[in-house]
Specification:
Elements (H helix, E strand, L loop, with lengths): L1 H18 L15 H6 L10 E3 L5 E3 L3 E2 L12 H16 L4 E3 L7 H11 L7 E6 L7 H12 L6 E4 L6 H16 L6 E4 L5 H8 L7 E5 L7 H8 L4 E5 L13 H10 L3 H12 L2 E2 L6 H8 L8 H8 L42 H34 L1
Helix pairs in contact: 3-4, 6-7, 9-10
The structure holds NADP nicotinamide-adenine-dinucleotide phosphate.
Length: 391
Protein backbone atom coordinates (compact mmCIF):
# COMPACT_ATOMS: atom_id res chain seq x y z
CA UNK A 1 0.00 0.00 0.00
CA UNK A 2 2.84 2.37 0.94
CA UNK A 3 4.49 1.57 -2.42
CA UNK A 4 1.34 2.51 -4.33
CA UNK A 5 1.10 5.80 -2.43
CA UNK A 6 4.72 6.75 -3.14
CA UNK A 7 4.06 6.06 -6.80
CA UNK A 8 0.64 7.71 -7.20
CA UNK A 9 1.04 10.87 -5.08
CA UNK A 10 3.91 12.38 -7.15
CA UNK A 11 2.03 11.56 -10.39
CA UNK A 12 -1.10 13.30 -9.06
CA UNK A 13 0.98 16.31 -8.01
CA UNK A 14 2.63 16.57 -11.44
CA UNK A 15 -0.81 16.26 -13.08
CA UNK A 16 -2.28 18.98 -10.86
CA UNK A 17 0.65 21.32 -11.45
CA UNK A 18 0.71 20.86 -15.22
CA UNK A 19 -3.07 21.13 -15.61
CA UNK A 20 -3.28 24.40 -13.64
CA UNK A 21 -4.13 27.43 -15.79
CA UNK A 22 -1.46 30.11 -15.81
CA UNK A 23 -2.44 33.42 -14.21
CA UNK A 24 -2.76 35.07 -17.64
CA UNK A 25 -4.45 32.31 -19.65
CA UNK A 26 -7.51 33.34 -21.64
CA UNK A 27 -10.90 31.69 -21.81
CA UNK A 28 -11.13 29.60 -24.95
CA UNK A 29 -13.92 31.36 -26.86
CA UNK A 30 -12.83 30.91 -30.49
CA UNK A 31 -12.74 27.87 -32.72
CA UNK A 32 -9.27 26.21 -32.83
CA UNK A 33 -7.00 26.40 -35.90
CA UNK A 34 -7.12 23.93 -38.79
CA UNK A 35 -5.16 20.78 -38.11
CA UNK A 36 -2.20 21.30 -40.53
CA UNK A 37 -0.06 23.79 -38.64
CA UNK A 38 -1.52 22.87 -35.28
CA UNK A 39 -0.54 19.21 -35.57
CA UNK A 40 3.06 20.03 -36.54
CA UNK A 41 3.87 22.52 -33.80
CA UNK A 42 5.81 21.19 -30.84
CA UNK A 43 7.13 24.19 -28.88
CA UNK A 44 8.72 23.49 -25.49
CA UNK A 45 9.80 26.17 -23.06
CA UNK A 46 13.50 27.04 -22.90
CA UNK A 47 15.28 29.45 -20.51
CA UNK A 48 12.11 29.54 -18.38
CA UNK A 49 9.95 31.34 -20.99
CA UNK A 50 6.29 30.97 -19.90
CA UNK A 51 3.33 30.40 -22.22
CA UNK A 52 -0.03 32.15 -22.34
CA UNK A 53 -3.10 30.33 -23.59
CA UNK A 54 -4.80 32.39 -26.30
CA UNK A 55 -8.56 32.59 -26.79
CA UNK A 56 -8.38 29.76 -29.37
CA UNK A 57 -6.60 27.34 -27.01
CA UNK A 58 -3.14 27.77 -28.60
CA UNK A 59 -0.24 28.35 -26.17
CA UNK A 60 2.00 31.27 -27.13
CA UNK A 61 5.50 31.93 -25.67
CA UNK A 62 5.23 35.14 -23.63
CA UNK A 63 8.67 36.35 -24.65
CA UNK A 64 10.28 36.55 -28.08
CA UNK A 65 12.85 38.21 -30.32
CA UNK A 66 12.00 41.27 -32.43
CA UNK A 67 13.87 41.00 -35.73
CA UNK A 68 13.31 44.45 -37.21
CA UNK A 69 16.48 46.49 -37.78
CA UNK A 70 15.05 49.95 -38.35
CA UNK A 71 18.44 51.61 -38.77
CA UNK A 72 19.24 49.45 -41.84
CA UNK A 73 15.89 49.72 -43.64
CA UNK A 74 16.69 52.92 -45.56
CA UNK A 75 19.28 51.15 -47.76
CA UNK A 76 17.39 49.65 -50.75
CA UNK A 77 20.08 46.96 -51.11
CA UNK A 78 18.66 44.34 -48.74
CA UNK A 79 21.72 42.04 -48.68
CA UNK A 80 23.43 43.65 -45.65
CA UNK A 81 20.13 43.94 -43.72
CA UNK A 82 19.24 40.27 -44.26
CA UNK A 83 22.77 39.10 -43.48
CA UNK A 84 22.61 40.95 -40.16
CA UNK A 85 19.14 39.57 -39.38
CA UNK A 86 20.30 36.06 -40.34
CA UNK A 87 23.15 36.51 -37.80
CA UNK A 88 20.96 37.93 -35.00
CA UNK A 89 18.25 35.26 -35.44
CA UNK A 90 20.93 32.57 -35.21
CA UNK A 91 22.26 34.24 -32.04
CA UNK A 92 18.74 34.42 -30.56
CA UNK A 93 17.89 30.80 -31.31
CA UNK A 94 21.19 29.55 -29.93
CA UNK A 95 20.48 31.66 -26.81
CA UNK A 96 17.25 29.65 -26.30
CA UNK A 97 14.70 32.10 -27.74
CA UNK A 98 11.72 30.11 -29.01
CA UNK A 99 9.75 32.95 -30.60
CA UNK A 100 10.56 35.33 -33.49
CA UNK A 101 8.65 38.41 -34.68
CA UNK A 102 9.04 39.62 -38.27
CA UNK A 103 6.95 41.33 -41.00
CA UNK A 104 6.89 41.64 -44.79
CA UNK A 105 7.60 45.36 -44.38
CA UNK A 106 10.84 44.72 -42.44
CA UNK A 107 12.33 43.29 -45.70
CA UNK A 108 14.02 40.66 -43.58
CA UNK A 109 11.86 37.50 -43.75
CA UNK A 110 14.46 35.85 -45.99
CA UNK A 111 17.19 36.53 -43.42
CA UNK A 112 14.93 35.18 -40.66
CA UNK A 113 14.31 31.99 -42.67
CA UNK A 114 18.05 31.45 -43.20
CA UNK A 115 18.81 32.25 -39.55
CA UNK A 116 16.45 29.44 -38.55
CA UNK A 117 18.12 27.01 -40.99
CA UNK A 118 21.58 28.10 -39.84
CA UNK A 119 20.71 27.57 -36.16
CA UNK A 120 19.66 23.95 -36.93
CA UNK A 121 16.72 24.44 -34.57
CA UNK A 122 13.65 22.50 -35.70
CA UNK A 123 11.14 24.94 -37.19
CA UNK A 124 8.27 23.18 -35.37
CA UNK A 125 9.91 23.93 -32.02
CA UNK A 126 9.68 27.71 -32.46
CA UNK A 127 6.94 30.31 -32.76
CA UNK A 128 7.08 32.48 -35.89
CA UNK A 129 5.03 35.65 -36.26
CA UNK A 130 4.78 37.75 -39.43
CA UNK A 131 2.59 40.58 -40.71
CA UNK A 132 0.74 41.39 -43.91
CA UNK A 133 1.41 44.88 -45.23
CA UNK A 134 -1.55 47.12 -46.23
CA UNK A 135 -0.29 47.05 -49.85
CA UNK A 136 -1.24 43.39 -50.09
CA UNK A 137 -4.60 43.55 -48.26
CA UNK A 138 -6.49 43.38 -51.56
CA UNK A 139 -4.70 40.12 -52.48
CA UNK A 140 -4.11 38.80 -48.98
CA UNK A 141 -4.22 35.11 -49.83
CA UNK A 142 -1.23 35.49 -52.22
CA UNK A 143 0.38 37.79 -49.65
CA UNK A 144 0.26 34.98 -47.07
CA UNK A 145 1.83 32.50 -49.51
CA UNK A 146 4.60 35.03 -50.20
CA UNK A 147 5.38 35.28 -46.48
CA UNK A 148 5.56 31.48 -46.19
CA UNK A 149 7.89 31.30 -49.18
CA UNK A 150 10.27 34.00 -47.94
CA UNK A 151 10.45 32.38 -44.50
CA UNK A 152 10.86 28.89 -46.04
CA UNK A 153 8.07 27.44 -43.92
CA UNK A 154 4.65 25.96 -44.64
CA UNK A 155 2.86 27.58 -41.70
CA UNK A 156 2.94 30.59 -39.39
CA UNK A 157 2.20 30.58 -35.67
CA UNK A 158 0.77 34.09 -35.76
CA UNK A 159 -0.14 36.45 -38.60
CA UNK A 160 -1.09 40.10 -38.17
CA UNK A 161 -2.65 42.77 -40.29
CA UNK A 162 0.31 45.12 -39.78
CA UNK A 163 -1.42 48.52 -39.96
CA UNK A 164 -5.11 49.56 -40.20
CA UNK A 165 -4.57 51.39 -43.49
CA UNK A 166 -6.88 51.71 -46.49
CA UNK A 167 -10.54 51.23 -47.16
CA UNK A 168 -12.32 49.50 -44.24
CA UNK A 169 -13.90 46.89 -46.55
CA UNK A 170 -10.46 45.98 -47.90
CA UNK A 171 -9.08 45.66 -44.36
CA UNK A 172 -11.98 43.34 -43.45
CA UNK A 173 -11.48 41.28 -46.64
CA UNK A 174 -7.79 40.80 -45.73
CA UNK A 175 -8.86 39.74 -42.24
CA UNK A 176 -11.24 37.17 -43.77
CA UNK A 177 -8.41 35.83 -45.94
CA UNK A 178 -6.37 35.33 -42.74
CA UNK A 179 -9.32 33.46 -41.17
CA UNK A 180 -9.47 31.20 -44.27
CA UNK A 181 -5.71 30.51 -43.92
CA UNK A 182 -6.32 29.75 -40.23
CA UNK A 183 -9.08 27.26 -41.03
CA UNK A 184 -6.89 25.71 -43.75
CA UNK A 185 -4.16 25.04 -41.18
CA UNK A 186 -1.62 27.55 -42.54
CA UNK A 187 -1.75 29.83 -39.49
CA UNK A 188 -2.19 29.00 -35.77
CA UNK A 189 -3.40 32.40 -34.56
CA UNK A 190 -4.34 35.74 -36.08
CA UNK A 191 -3.95 39.28 -34.86
CA UNK A 192 -4.32 42.99 -35.48
CA UNK A 193 -1.41 45.36 -35.09
CA UNK A 194 -1.74 49.11 -34.37
CA UNK A 195 -5.55 48.96 -34.63
CA UNK A 196 -5.70 50.97 -31.39
CA UNK A 197 -4.91 53.94 -33.63
CA UNK A 198 -7.97 53.53 -35.86
CA UNK A 199 -11.02 52.49 -33.87
CA UNK A 200 -13.21 52.39 -36.98
CA UNK A 201 -11.07 49.49 -38.25
CA UNK A 202 -10.91 47.86 -34.80
CA UNK A 203 -14.72 47.93 -34.50
CA UNK A 204 -15.18 46.50 -38.00
CA UNK A 205 -12.95 43.52 -37.13
CA UNK A 206 -14.79 42.95 -33.84
CA UNK A 207 -18.03 42.58 -35.77
CA UNK A 208 -16.59 39.51 -37.51
CA UNK A 209 -17.66 36.16 -36.09
CA UNK A 210 -14.08 34.95 -35.56
CA UNK A 211 -12.22 37.28 -33.19
CA UNK A 212 -8.43 37.83 -33.25
CA UNK A 213 -6.18 36.24 -30.64
CA UNK A 214 -3.55 38.98 -30.27
CA UNK A 215 -3.26 42.77 -30.54
CA UNK A 216 0.25 44.17 -31.09
CA UNK A 217 0.74 47.73 -29.83
CA UNK A 218 3.54 49.99 -28.59
CA UNK A 219 3.82 49.39 -24.85
CA UNK A 220 6.59 49.97 -22.26
CA UNK A 221 6.87 51.60 -18.81
CA UNK A 222 6.64 55.14 -20.27
CA UNK A 223 3.45 54.32 -22.25
CA UNK A 224 1.65 51.50 -20.47
CA UNK A 225 -1.48 51.69 -22.62
CA UNK A 226 -3.96 50.85 -19.88
CA UNK A 227 -7.03 51.86 -21.91
CA UNK A 228 -6.10 49.67 -24.86
CA UNK A 229 -5.23 46.81 -22.55
CA UNK A 230 -8.71 47.08 -20.98
CA UNK A 231 -10.25 47.10 -24.45
CA UNK A 232 -8.40 43.91 -25.39
CA UNK A 233 -9.92 42.16 -22.37
CA UNK A 234 -13.41 42.54 -23.89
CA UNK A 235 -12.73 39.64 -26.27
CA UNK A 236 -9.98 37.94 -24.26
CA UNK A 237 -7.41 39.24 -26.72
CA UNK A 238 -3.77 39.00 -25.67
CA UNK A 239 -1.68 42.19 -25.80
CA UNK A 240 1.81 41.97 -27.31
CA UNK A 241 4.22 44.89 -26.94
CA UNK A 242 6.41 46.31 -29.67
CA UNK A 243 9.19 48.70 -28.60
CA UNK A 244 9.17 47.03 -25.14
CA UNK A 245 12.37 49.01 -24.39
CA UNK A 246 10.97 52.09 -26.16
CA UNK A 247 13.69 51.47 -28.74
CA UNK A 248 16.18 52.80 -26.17
CA UNK A 249 14.79 56.32 -26.56
CA UNK A 250 14.21 59.14 -24.05
CA UNK A 251 16.80 57.77 -21.63
CA UNK A 252 14.56 54.88 -20.60
CA UNK A 253 17.56 52.55 -20.10
CA UNK A 254 19.17 55.02 -17.69
CA UNK A 255 15.97 55.98 -15.84
CA UNK A 256 16.86 56.58 -12.17
CA UNK A 257 13.89 54.71 -10.70
CA UNK A 258 14.45 51.70 -12.94
CA UNK A 259 18.18 51.79 -12.22
CA UNK A 260 17.65 51.56 -8.47
CA UNK A 261 15.25 48.61 -8.91
CA UNK A 262 17.76 46.97 -11.26
CA UNK A 263 20.59 47.43 -8.72
CA UNK A 264 18.49 45.82 -6.00
CA UNK A 265 18.23 42.65 -8.11
CA UNK A 266 21.69 42.80 -9.63
CA UNK A 267 20.07 43.03 -13.05
CA UNK A 268 20.17 45.59 -15.86
CA UNK A 269 17.43 48.17 -16.51
CA UNK A 270 16.54 46.35 -19.75
CA UNK A 271 16.02 43.15 -17.75
CA UNK A 272 13.82 44.93 -15.19
CA UNK A 273 11.66 46.45 -17.94
CA UNK A 274 11.22 43.09 -19.67
CA UNK A 275 10.48 41.37 -16.36
CA UNK A 276 7.81 44.05 -15.72
CA UNK A 277 6.13 43.08 -19.02
CA UNK A 278 6.10 39.41 -18.01
CA UNK A 279 4.59 40.10 -14.57
CA UNK A 280 1.98 42.40 -16.16
CA UNK A 281 0.86 39.50 -18.40
CA UNK A 282 2.10 41.24 -21.56
CA UNK A 283 4.04 39.56 -24.36
CA UNK A 284 7.39 41.28 -25.04
CA UNK A 285 9.54 41.02 -28.17
CA UNK A 286 12.72 43.06 -27.58
CA UNK A 287 15.06 43.50 -30.55
CA UNK A 288 18.83 43.75 -30.56
CA UNK A 289 21.77 43.48 -32.93
CA UNK A 290 24.17 42.78 -30.09
CA UNK A 291 24.78 39.15 -29.01
CA UNK A 292 25.44 40.19 -25.39
CA UNK A 293 22.15 42.11 -25.20
CA UNK A 294 20.31 39.21 -26.85
CA UNK A 295 21.50 36.86 -24.08
CA UNK A 296 20.91 39.46 -21.36
CA UNK A 297 17.32 40.12 -22.43
CA UNK A 298 16.20 36.51 -22.07
CA UNK A 299 17.91 36.14 -18.68
CA UNK A 300 14.86 37.39 -16.78
CA UNK A 301 13.24 34.23 -15.49
CA UNK A 302 15.34 33.81 -12.34
CA UNK A 303 14.09 36.82 -10.36
CA UNK A 304 10.80 38.48 -9.45
CA UNK A 305 9.82 42.12 -8.97
CA UNK A 306 7.97 42.74 -5.71
CA UNK A 307 4.43 44.17 -5.69
CA UNK A 308 5.85 47.46 -4.50
CA UNK A 309 8.41 47.56 -7.36
CA UNK A 310 5.66 46.72 -9.88
CA UNK A 311 3.60 49.61 -8.51
CA UNK A 312 6.59 51.97 -8.67
CA UNK A 313 7.10 51.07 -12.35
CA UNK A 314 3.36 51.56 -12.99
CA UNK A 315 3.88 55.08 -11.67
CA UNK A 316 6.30 55.85 -14.55
CA UNK A 317 3.47 55.81 -17.09
CA UNK A 318 3.32 59.07 -19.09
CA UNK A 319 0.15 58.07 -20.94
CA UNK A 320 -0.12 59.12 -24.59
CA UNK A 321 2.80 61.53 -24.13
CA UNK A 322 5.11 58.60 -23.45
CA UNK A 323 4.55 56.96 -26.85
CA UNK A 324 7.31 56.96 -29.47
CA UNK A 325 4.72 56.79 -32.31
CA UNK A 326 1.09 57.80 -32.51
CA UNK A 327 0.17 57.46 -36.18
CA UNK A 328 -3.23 58.78 -37.34
CA UNK A 329 -4.03 55.98 -39.80
CA UNK A 330 -6.26 56.56 -42.80
CA UNK A 331 -6.39 55.47 -46.43
CA UNK A 332 -2.82 56.27 -47.48
CA UNK A 333 0.35 54.41 -46.73
CA UNK A 334 4.02 54.78 -47.48
CA UNK A 335 5.77 51.39 -47.54
CA UNK A 336 7.25 50.44 -50.88
CA UNK A 337 7.16 46.64 -51.02
CA UNK A 338 9.72 46.02 -53.75
CA UNK A 339 10.81 42.39 -53.93
CA UNK A 340 14.39 41.78 -52.83
CA UNK A 341 16.96 39.05 -52.95
CA UNK A 342 19.25 37.71 -50.27
CA UNK A 343 22.21 35.48 -50.99
CA UNK A 344 23.26 33.96 -47.67
CA UNK A 345 26.81 32.97 -46.94
CA UNK A 346 27.38 29.23 -46.52
CA UNK A 347 24.26 28.13 -48.40
CA UNK A 348 23.91 27.22 -52.04
CA UNK A 349 20.71 27.30 -54.06
CA UNK A 350 20.12 23.53 -53.66
CA UNK A 351 20.18 23.85 -49.84
CA UNK A 352 17.64 26.70 -49.76
CA UNK A 353 14.62 24.64 -48.79
CA UNK A 354 16.16 22.30 -46.26
CA UNK A 355 18.04 22.66 -43.01
CA UNK A 356 19.36 19.19 -43.47
CA UNK A 357 21.34 19.98 -46.56
CA UNK A 358 24.18 17.63 -45.68
CA UNK A 359 21.95 14.56 -45.48
CA UNK A 360 20.11 15.69 -48.61
CA UNK A 361 23.29 16.05 -50.58
CA UNK A 362 24.63 12.75 -49.30
CA UNK A 363 21.44 10.92 -50.31
CA UNK A 364 21.62 12.71 -53.64
CA UNK A 365 25.20 11.61 -54.18
CA UNK A 366 24.48 8.05 -53.10
CA UNK A 367 21.58 7.76 -55.55
CA UNK A 368 23.87 9.35 -58.09
CA UNK A 369 26.60 6.82 -57.50
CA UNK A 370 24.15 3.92 -57.51
CA UNK A 371 22.83 5.01 -60.91
CA UNK A 372 26.45 5.32 -62.07
CA UNK A 373 26.95 1.78 -60.73
CA UNK A 374 24.03 0.46 -62.82
CA UNK A 375 25.45 2.15 -65.94
CA UNK A 376 28.85 0.63 -65.21
CA UNK A 377 27.37 -2.91 -64.84
CA UNK A 378 25.35 -2.54 -68.06
CA UNK A 379 28.52 -1.40 -69.82
CA UNK A 380 30.43 -4.48 -68.63
CA UNK A 381 27.54 -6.77 -69.67
CA UNK A 382 27.52 -5.19 -73.13
CA UNK A 383 31.30 -5.80 -73.57
CA UNK A 384 30.97 -9.45 -72.40
CA UNK A 385 28.04 -10.06 -74.80
CA UNK A 386 30.06 -8.41 -77.61
CA UNK A 387 32.96 -10.81 -77.04
CA UNK A 388 30.65 -13.87 -76.65
CA UNK A 389 28.83 -13.25 -79.89
CA UNK A 390 31.50 -11.59 -82.10
CA UNK A 391 34.89 -12.78 -80.85
N1 LIG B 1 3.79 46.11 -35.10
C1 LIG B 1 4.54 47.18 -35.31
O1 LIG B 1 4.11 48.14 -35.96
C2 LIG B 1 5.92 47.21 -34.77
C3 LIG B 1 6.59 48.44 -34.71
C4 LIG B 1 7.90 48.45 -34.23
C5 LIG B 1 8.51 47.29 -33.80
N2 LIG B 1 7.83 46.10 -33.87
C6 LIG B 1 8.46 44.84 -33.40
O2 LIG B 1 8.94 45.07 -32.09
C7 LIG B 1 10.30 44.64 -32.00
C8 LIG B 1 11.03 45.37 -30.92
O3 LIG B 1 11.21 46.72 -31.26
P1 LIG B 1 12.66 47.37 -31.41
O4 LIG B 1 13.65 46.28 -31.54
O5 LIG B 1 12.65 48.37 -32.48
O6 LIG B 1 12.80 48.16 -30.05
P2 LIG B 1 13.13 47.70 -28.54
O7 LIG B 1 13.12 46.23 -28.42
O8 LIG B 1 12.25 48.50 -27.65
O9 LIG B 1 14.60 48.27 -28.33
C9 LIG B 1 15.66 47.90 -29.18
C10 LIG B 1 16.77 48.92 -28.92
O10 LIG B 1 17.25 48.73 -27.57
C11 LIG B 1 18.62 48.35 -27.59
N3 LIG B 1 18.78 47.24 -26.64
C12 LIG B 1 18.18 46.04 -26.67
N4 LIG B 1 18.53 45.30 -25.59
C13 LIG B 1 19.39 46.07 -24.88
C14 LIG B 1 20.10 45.86 -23.68
N5 LIG B 1 20.00 44.72 -23.00
N6 LIG B 1 20.91 46.87 -23.23
C15 LIG B 1 21.02 48.03 -23.92
N7 LIG B 1 20.36 48.29 -25.07
C16 LIG B 1 19.55 47.30 -25.55
C17 LIG B 1 18.91 47.90 -29.00
O11 LIG B 1 20.26 48.21 -29.33
P3 LIG B 1 21.34 47.04 -29.63
O12 LIG B 1 21.03 46.56 -31.02
O13 LIG B 1 22.63 47.73 -29.51
O14 LIG B 1 21.14 45.97 -28.60
C18 LIG B 1 17.94 48.73 -29.84
O15 LIG B 1 18.48 49.98 -30.09
C19 LIG B 1 10.83 44.88 -33.41
O16 LIG B 1 12.03 44.18 -33.65
C20 LIG B 1 9.67 44.40 -34.23
O17 LIG B 1 9.71 42.99 -34.34
C21 LIG B 1 6.54 46.06 -34.34
Amino acid sequence: MKDIKTFIIPILMIFMLTSCDSEFDHEVTQEGPGSGAQSKSNIQSKAGVPFIRLNNGVNMPQFGFGTQILSMESDPDRQALNAKVDETVTAALTSDYIHLDTAHAYFNEKGVGYGILRSKVDRNSIWITSKLDPHEFDDASNGIDGILERLQTDYLDLLFLHHPVGNINTIVSAYRAMVEAYKAGKVRAIGISNFDNRMEAYNAIMEEEFKPQVMQIECHPYAQRNETRELAKTYDIQVECWFPLKHNQDGILSDETLTSIANAHNKSVAQVILRWHIQEGLIAIPGSTNATHIKENIDIFDFELTDSEMNTIRGLDQGEAGRAYNIPYGNDWFTNLVDYSYIPEGFNSSSESSSDSSSDSSSESSSDSSSKGINFTLGKLFIILFFVFFA
